[in-house]
Amino acid sequence: MYKWIRLSKAKRSFNYASRLIDCDISTPFPIAYIEETSVFGLKNSYYISEHIDYDFEFRALIHNPKFPDRELLLKQFAEFTFNLHQNNINFLDHSPGNTLILKTDKGYKFYLIDLNRMRFENMTFDKRMHNFRRMWLSKTMIKVIAKKYAELYNKPYQEIHEVMLKHSMAFQHKINRKKLRRSGRKMQFGTK
């Protein structure tokens, strides 16, 4: 399918990285992609990018409520994501492990990785809020991000907070239900 109908993950990652850089959104610089094919189609594909010596992933902010500069980082993350949305970029894998953070003399710099799932489309208000759902944000984190996003988007804080919270909680409940079902099956059928 990838050889004839759809671009490989590696080629998509390369193209999307170039597009992000054109929009002044940080991602490791794309160097090349390699595709191994046969008469039957794509066998393997590889994406090669610059190595970023980052300080931590966004995930660190979730697991440590007392993380240094946490509130500042959340506000800057809101700005970073707002910039994505303003450029009509819907990063479908916008999740804690796909945002690398580098501390610089001027503050913090955010880098997106794992780029092969993206849409370039008009980012409506609901799509913008929906795009935060995979970040696994706590209610406290949502308050900080929603407040900053509301300032940038020129929309009432309460409206941003309500919709962002709705999407985030729905996603977390969905994942937790799946985990519960899986653990229930293991208990019911046993694993030997």
How would you characterize the overall build of this protein?
There is one protein chain. The protein has 192 residues and is of the alpha+beta class. Among the domains are: 9-49, no CATH class; 71-94 and 118-178, no CATH class. 47% of the residues lie in helices and 20% in strands. It has six helices and seven strands. The strands form three sheets. A three-stranded antiparallel sheet has the order 3-5-6. A hairpin with a 2-residue loop joins strand 1 and strand 2. Helix 3 packs across helix 5 (139-153) and helix 5 packs antiparallel against helix 6. The longest helix is centred in the C-terminal third of the chain and has 33 residues, at 157-189. The protein is globular and about 55 Å long. The chain starts with 8 loop residues before the first helix and ends with a helix. The model has no long low-confidence stretch (mean pLDDT 92).
Q: Helix and strand string, N-terminal first?
A: HEEEHHEEEEHHH
Alpha-carbon distance between the two ends: 37 Å
Question: What topology, given as strand order, has the largest sheet?
Answer: 3-5-6
Helix content: 40-55%
Question: What would you report as the Rg, rounded to the nearest angstrom?
Answer: 19 Å
DSSP E strands, number: 7
The main β sheet shows up as: 3 strands, antiparallel
Approximately how much beta-strand content do the residues carry? 15-25%
Runs with pLDDT <50, length 5+?
none
